[in-house]
Design a protein that fits this description.
The chain is of the alpha+beta class and 214 residues long. The chain contains 8 helices and 11 strands. The chain is 35% helix and 28% strand.
């Protein structure tokens, strides 16, 4: 599909259909749709947290926020040698954020943005788009907070699109396209509001229903 015909409404319809957009590179203006045979998901009741990560979270090395700097998170996610986030995608997600469908969880060290993750919400589904880390364990800590917050606010599906080694180490799994479509259909039948509760405390993040690993 040509980039110029993309709109936020088209993008939301795509997510509801189980597909998502990508670009070949930052410089490529074209956008294509992706529908993987195997889909990565992060079970909200199966987050893996090591003892060392638990201790680090409890030390509260970062300040945590929601939607304090959505654009900054997307820019940071794109700030790497190879990225699928081109200008078209960047602008589309900014518009989705302004419409209330895209959100970012940020980690701060004083006033410096050092980690975060952003994605799109529809129904009770959170479609994770990208994350970044500028400090040790920042992306793991961001995901730990986000998983707990999504569970607290009524979400049931955390779509990670693909399964990386990093996500697998935190409890991510792959499911078939058919299984994903079934989970998505169920999640879209009801509504959850990511803004309905305050972010969890470090203690509640580390005592969520998780799988402890050494």
């Amino acid at each position: 599909m040509a980039a110029q015909v993309l709109t936020p409404d088209v993008l939301l319809h795509a997510y509801a259909s189980g597909i998502f957009p990508m670009a070949e590179s930052r410089e490529d203006t074209r956008v294509f749709w992706v529908d993987p045979d195997e889909r990565g998901v992060l079970p909200l009741d199966g987050f893996h947290i090591s003892r060392s990560l638990r201790r680090r979270i409890l030390r509260e090395p970062f300040q945590v926020s929601l939607n304090r700097d959505f654009a900054g998170v997307v820019k940071a996610c794109a700030d790497r040698p190879e990225t699928w986030i081109n200008d078209t995608i960047f602008e589309l997600y900014l518009r989705l954020h302004q419409m209330g469908f895209a959100h970012a969880l940020e980690l701060w060290e004083n006033d410096e943005l050092v980690g975060g993750v952003y994605g799109v919400t529809l129904g009770r589904a959170f479609f994770g788009e990208s994350m970044f880390s500028r400090r040790r364990d920042a992306s793991k800590i961001a995901l730990a907070y986000l998983v707990r917050h999504l569970a607290n606010t009524g979400f049931q599906l955390f779509d990670t699109q693909f399964l990386t080694d990093h996500l697998a180490s935190l409890g991510g799994v792959e499911i078939s396209r058919d299984a994903y479509q079934a989970a998505l259909s169920e999640a879209l039948e009801q509504h959850a509001d990511i803004l309905s509760e305050r972010l969890p405390t470090a203690y509640s993040v580390t005592t969520q229903r998780i799988t402890q690993t050494s």
